[in-house]
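[worker-b] picked up task from shared queue
[worker-b] task type: protein-ligand structure
[worker-b] ligand name resolved to nicotinamide-adenine-dinucleotide; SMILES cross-checked against name lookup, match
[worker-b] sequence length check passed
[worker-b] input payload:
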Amino acid sequence: MAWLVTGGAGYIGAHVVRAFREQGIDVVVVDDLSSGHAEFVPAGVPFYRGTILDGELLATIFAENTISGVVHVAGFKYAGVSVQRPLHTYEQNVTATAVLLAAMQDAGVDAIVFSSSAAVYGTPDVDIVTEATAKNPESPYGESKLIGEWLLRDQGVAAGLRHTSLRYFNVVGSGDPGLRDTSPHNLFPLVFDALVEGRTPRVNGDDYPTPDGTCVRDYIHVADLAVSHVAAAKRLDAGEPIEPVYNLGSGDGVSVGQIMSTVAEVTGIAFTPEVGPRRPGDPARIVASGELAARDLDWKMRHTLDEMVRSAWEARQAAS
Ligand SMILES: NC(=O)c1ccc[n+]([C@@H]2O[C@H](COP(=O)([O-])OP(=O)(O)OC[C@H]3O[C@@H](n4cnc5c(N)ncnc54)[C@H](O)[C@@H]3O)[C@@H](O)[C@H]2O)c1
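[worker-b] inference finished, payload out:
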């Protein structure tokens, strides 16, 4: 038996693939390489290159492999861009999820772990977000992730799908020097690219109502996140109870200013970040409790902030 990882050639999916294999569980990957990298898929892992919008491809994958469940990581993750490209975002995150669920139903595969996002909360008015905090997505991206969760819930009612959605907060770091976040929009790659190219990294706004004026976020290490996917899959395989949603957050806020200082320390490149204007829609602070996931999904912060920055920097350097 194997688990299918959609988006397994991407930053998070590739770490999920490795976490499953480390625990002796076989995986199969499907990825269209729209933002992923074939070289992120380890040798020996069956890899289907194609889009999950293609129901026939999915039927072939389910026919050719014995799949007990799916970790559905594939998606279009650029929240800012989603405002300009809502139809594309909905196609990739909503239609694609519906096609996947239909193919699973046809193949009799009834367990799924879904990559959801902190973006479902929008700008929360609480210090610590819990799973019960109101959902107010502020972009087509956040909306599409919430609809993805609803699709799973409704398919659970209609067809007995067993499911959980993991709402990731700010995923950073690297669990393997060969794997890194190559997003052109995320903080770590932006800062590292600037340093490598001799530019000064930039902070978007330093007049927020936070201790140092920069936005406060909840940074989690990608390898810690990956472990919880395996725990969720094991619960589903064992028929154990599982919550419909879990926050994967640290309970601890770190400011963008603190990240910049840590980057300067780790890289040995002294710099004072440029301060640009606030980005529209950026909440001052978003930090989540991961208590529920700690109870059920072996969730804990196994890495410090320094390790998150260092591992990401090492992977960035290995790539250049
Ligand atoms: N990185 C974060 O901080 C973060 C936070 C919250 C949620 N997420 C979610 O986690 C998931 C993975 O994010 P990531 O950071 O690894 O991004 P990523 O872009 O590196 O990975 C996404 C992968 O999915 C593949 N893909 C996209 N559309 C596909 C399709 N239609 N068919 C097949 N493959 C497809 C891409 O080629 C890529 O390999 C996404 O769904 C994202 O929304 C990420």
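[worker-b] attaching auto-annotations
[worker-b] The chain has two domains: 2-171+220-248, 172-217+250-288+301-319.
[worker-b] releasing lock
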